[in-house]
Predict the structure of MarR family transcriptional regulator.
Amino acid sequence: MTIRWLTPEEERAWRSYIAASWLLEDTIDRRLQREAGMSHLYYSVLARLSDAPDRRMRMTDLAEATRITRSRLTYVVSRLEKDGTVRREGCPTDKRGSTAVLTDAGMALLERAAPGHVETVRASVFDHLTPEQVSQLEAICDRITEALQANEERSACDGLPWRRRSSSA
Amino acid sequence: MTIRWLTPEEERAWRSYIAASWLLEDTIDRRLQREAGMSHLYYSVLARLSDAPDRRMRMTDLAEATRITRSRLTYVVSRLEKDGTVRREGCPTDKRGSTAVLTDAGMALLERAAPGHVETVRASVFDHLTPEQVSQLEAICDRITEALQANEERSACDGLPWRRRSSSA
DNA sequence: GATACTTGGTTCAAGTTTTAAACAGTAACT
DNA sequence: AGTTACTGTTTAAAACTTGAACCAAGTATC
């Protein structure tokens, strides 16, 4: 089959999207670096933990949730541990396992950094969108995520290390 | 002033957006890595060059266009030069200057990788959106970019190395 | 036309991140 | 018991990023 190139409208939308998403990610990173001393990825690991029951998660689950390799997560968590925002604990039910726990200091940092972070998101995004656009954005992004996840199923274990069924604490 | 948190709708949209954009960037990166041997950033530098008149750009302009520091661009272009996709040339009118030129090999690589790249973008995004959604996406992203650029003006030279007026070939 | 100031771009060294391939220990299955 | 699969870490190498220092060339000032 011959290549289906983007239509002019799609092309414009795509360029818009790339420009915005890179610029936005950059802005967020810079602000978090300044105010929390870490990149968006690291911050999101803390944030994910703060959402988890008891603020703790098994490493593999955390890796899957944040969509990074276990190896990479080991590195990230080590750094966070050095910062004192995360602590590791063994897993009672599975002696191989280890559990990342958000410390009080980690929670405090999150709380200290959250206002600035939200402010960035507001000032960059939501302050300039109508309520309709907000729900449009959600719908569009959900379609994209769906598509990508379906795609992942299909090409499962095709180079993605973290394909696995879930387990729990 | 007290913090204006995100409304539940905004919160949902934001999570959707982050999930989609990270997943998408990841997917694109992986595919380009496989088929072009480079990340999205590097690819986009080549792509930007291919759009430029005569397929050449001054380093500073290229840095500004791709929104990275000159230092970082020097590194990127060195790597691309090693790959043979870019060549450096001195600038006749300004002897300090250097110009990055997309080589034929670079153009060939771009042409070889483009179909797969477009296919990723299609399969991840546009095949699942209505024409209305495509234009909504564009509108939304344009608002975001506007906001971020306005914001940049305000905090100009506040840690951003690449603030500068344009120059040309 | 010498002095300073700015700009374009690179270099350098240090630090951070990412990757992939082992690995050790434990669990699970037969 | 013996394999097989899983968890998470280690390791070594590579890739990337940063910021400061730097040089050379342009620009302005007097």
